[in-house]
Amino acid sequence: MKKKIALFTLMLIAAVYLIFGYGRSGSEMGFKAKILAIDKDVVFAETIEDDAGFLSPRLPGKFYFELDLIPETAPNLYEGDIIEGTYLGNSIKGNTARVVTVILSQENERLWDKRPAVMVNGVLYYDTNTETSNIPSCGLMDGEITSAVESWKLPEKDNQSNFGTGYKYQYGTENTVVVYINGKRMLFKAED
Q: Where are the domain boundaries for CATH 2.40.50.320 in the chain?
């Protein structure tokens, strides 16, 4: 009778092992996640679903993976996108996993860049994409861009741009300012 109980227990353990996927830890397992951020070639994501078995290693709540390790056929990914993919179960180390495939499940509303602009004295001036030499170079700058917003936003306060800081400017004629960018005098104009 003891042999039958021992054999039954052993068979039960083997069944649990197979049913709940512990043996899958080295194979590909699926996941669904939301992209929190992308920094160069590293994607930071938050797990929504993970199909790892009951006893298998699972993705952490927040994890990251390298884009250059997935095939070139992967979609362009952006912050806020919902992705689905597979990872190697035995590749989880801390907050990282070896992601094998990625598909885009749901796109986030894209935030596109706005036209370069700067705010000076409460007026918004937009880049005309024109280099100018009409402004006399007296050597004295009228101001400097000291703060910036993201490129998909418009400046909201004086001496702020959506393309960076540290650029000096001079007042021009007819509702313009000239911004000195990389040694070039770029013309920005206020629009009605």
A: 25-106
> Of residues 15 and 31, which shows the higher confidence score?
31
CATH code at 25-106? 2.40.50.320
Cβ neighbours of residue 93 under 8 Å, at least 6 residues apart? none
- Dihedral sign of CA atoms 79, 35, 38, 75 in order: negative
| pLDDT above 70 as % of the chain | 73
Other C-beta atoms within 10 Å of 122: how many? 7
Amino acid, single-letter form, for residue 130:
T
The tokens for 177 are 């300012």
Name the pTM for this structure: 0.45
Name the residue among 113, 74, 66, 89 with its Cα closest to residue 20: 89
Phi-psi region of 175 (alpha: psi -120 to 50; beta: other; left: phi over 0): left
Q: What is the DSSP string of 67-129?
A: GGGS-TTSPP--TT-EEEEEEEGGG-BTTB--EEEEEEEEPPPP-PPPPPEEEETTEEEEEEE
